[in-house]
Amino acid sequence: MTYQDYLDQKPVILTAALTGGVHGKDANPNLPEQPDEIAREARACERLGASIVHVHGRDRHGENDTGRLQAVTEAIHDRCDDIVVQHSTGGQGPLRERIKALRTDPAPEMASLDLGPFKRDRHIITDHTRDNIDTLAREMRRRNITPELEVFNGGQLAEVTRLAEDGLIDRPFFVNLVFGGANFTPPRPGAVLELVRTLPEGSEFNLLATGRHQRPLTTLAVLLGGHVRVGMEDNLYSDRGVPAESNAQLLERTVATVESLDRPIATPEETRAMLDIEGDTVGGPRPGDELAAGEQAADEGSACPFLAYRSEGDGRSFDHERPYCTVADEFVSPMQADVCNDRFDFDHRSHCDVYREYVESETAPVPEEDD
């Protein structure tokens, strides 16, 4: 992907990220959460030129629920003509939950594949180990699902090469460069240029930027011959302090920018050709599903008897209840809860003491150096 691609008027793939798994309607009441809401937004974005929709599943309270992706996919197919559906396999849940995003019937034509962990809030680190990444990549290959490779910082580009060398992904690599928020790549034009320069050969790059950085950095991506993702998962505002009315509103201004720069917008058919999406995914249960690496051991454990789920009472629609350790007498991260649920038979009190020490070390003031 180069400036020459821009000059040659290579079609731009537009992805609409409709809902995400972090914000709730308390942050913007126009955010779609339920299958029919998501499908209506998908249809509106398809009419404007989006050829891919990136979706998460949420339950009736707006909480993350991978199991709801089946209903979301069915609703989108009912309303849309030919759009490519891309499921998220990200988030903070255990592998056995994330892999369900690949087992809907029909399976999605695409799915996101996070190439490493990132931090959120004070004590949350997403659980994207190499074992988990490889398990999801193998499952995508097994079901003929095209991965979108999520790169949260420059070091994760090395994972693209590793996965290719291990035979888990094929060219063209659809690399999604993520800027802003959490500990993603700093949202600066120079950082965009550097990552684009270091893309592995055979890559098509997509770019998303959070919040106020969405508009300028996606415009830069268009000039560099890349593709763009916009939507309310990444940005809840149409202007500074003005909540977006819909995903279509955000996409509409992106379409205007692309057209003003004289690049055509890719149709779903052109998108499938550029990304080598074959469209014959394998959905539903398959022999060996229960043997996917990392899942069987996790499913054999029972829930930790010391864990409860309690509301913090902060009113966030996406966080009604959080895991609470009754031994440590504190809320714990979703990842910590997964560890406890999967390995409940270890010395829990000892483990909680270790976890408490970790929290205290993270929050302790840094001592001043002696003069």
UniProtKB/TrEMBL annotation:
The keyword Protein transport does not apply. Keywords: Metal-binding, Transferase, Zinc. Its cofactor is Zn(2+). GO terms for molecular function: metal ion binding; transferase activity. It comes from the Archaea. This is 3-keto-5-aminohexanoate cleavage protein.
